């Protein structure tokens, strides 16, 4: 019953979002133009940085193209589905607008996450898939059903991890006045880990970007599964990290709601 109600609400949110976007065409195509420009800049940076470098760790150019395409795919899905909704959580908490969502017949986190879906970024998903396909070709990877399913599995749970990280950082708004510096930390970590795979980090940097702020594993592990480099230890680390951060997301959010001071109180 609850799942059916959630699906109906999601369907209604999608329909309303499309209607609102098509009333203002720039709202539909604007994000694609901006995100597409960032995508092109990212590829140009990749070409500039790696044109004179044969390998990073054990990875050659083909693996790095796969890495760029995979991170772009994860980020594109993020932009399509939940980024714009999640990004507004801090403002709603501080302004008291959260009150409205607490009255909805569905999880307020789910509602806020999904209410601003952005279909204008869908072409970026397609562009990312083309980059991944090119990387597979350059790397001479012999695809099999098992490899494809494993890659889809890892990309899917890394999208979940990406979501968890965004919600966790914005849930801190329940406890402090401003999360501006925390969001800057998020931007810096993402920018670095979009350019360097997790295999490039060692020592304290590996702890920071593969454990504490695990942006370094988001695209690295899916690529490792595709090229046949994944080990039981890597798989355990990836799955356990997603599980831990999903639990942490739920705990921080639930506890934050208990500490939330309504604008009307």
Q: What keywords describe this structure?
A:
single chain; 265 residues; mainly alpha; 13 helices
Describe the structure.
- With 265 residues, this protein is mainly α.
- 74% of the residues lie in helices and 0% in strands.
- It contains 13 helices and no strands.
- The longest helix has 28 residues, at 232-259.
- The radius of gyration is 19 Å and the shape is globular.
Provide a compact summary of the structure.
The chain contains 13 helices and no strands.
Unreliably modeled segments: none
Order of helices and strands: HHHHHHHHHHHHH
User: Which oligomeric form is depicted?
Assistant: single chain
Mean of the pLDDT scores? 81
Q: Span from first to last CA?
A: 33 Å
**Helix content class:** over 70%
What would you call the shape? globular
Number of strands: 0
Q: What proportion strand?
A: under 5%
Output the radius of gyration: 19 Å
Number of helices: 13
Task: Specify the biggest β-sheet.
Answer: none
SS-based class: mainly alpha
Topology (SSEs and partners):
Elements: H1 2-23, H2 25-50, H3 61-81, H4 83-86, H5 89-95, H6 98-102, H7 108-114, H8 122-139, H9 145-171, H10 180-193, H11 204-212, H12 220-227, H13 232-259
Helix pairs in contact: 3-8, 3-9, 3-12, 9-12, 9-13
């Amino acid at each position: 019953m609850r799942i059916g109600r959630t699906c109906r609400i999601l369907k209604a949110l999608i329909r309303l979002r499309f209607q609102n976007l098509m009333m203002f065409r720039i709202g539909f195509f604007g994000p694609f133009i901006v995100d597409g420009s960032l995508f092109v800049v990212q590829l140009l940076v990749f070409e500039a940085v790696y044109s004179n470098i044969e390998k990073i760790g054990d990875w050659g150019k083909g693996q790095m193209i796969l890495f760029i395409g995979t991170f772009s795919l994860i980020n594109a899905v993020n932009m399509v589905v939940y980024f714009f909704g999640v990004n507004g959580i801090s403002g709603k908490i501080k302004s008291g607008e959260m009150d409205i969502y607490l009255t909805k017949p569905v999880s307020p986190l789910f509602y806020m996450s999904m209410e601003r879906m952005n279909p204008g970024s869908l072409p970026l998903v397609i562009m990312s898939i083309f980059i991944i396909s090119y990387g597979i070709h350059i790397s001479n990877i012999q695809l099999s059903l098992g490899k494809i399913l494993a890659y889809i599995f890892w990309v899917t749970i890394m999208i979940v991890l990406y979501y968890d990280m965004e919600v966790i950082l914005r849930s801190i708004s329940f406890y402090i006045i401003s999360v501006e510096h925390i969001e800057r930390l998020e931007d810096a970590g993402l920018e670095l880990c979009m350019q360097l795979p997790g295999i490039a980090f060692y020592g304290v940097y590996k702890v920071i970007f593969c454990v504490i702020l695990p942006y370094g594993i988001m695209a690295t592990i899916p690529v490792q599964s595709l090229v046949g480099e994944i080990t039981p230890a890597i798989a355990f680390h990836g799955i356990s990290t997603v599980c831990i951060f999903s639990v942490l997301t739920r705990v921080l959010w639930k506890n934050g709601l208990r500490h939330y001071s309504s604008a009307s109180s």
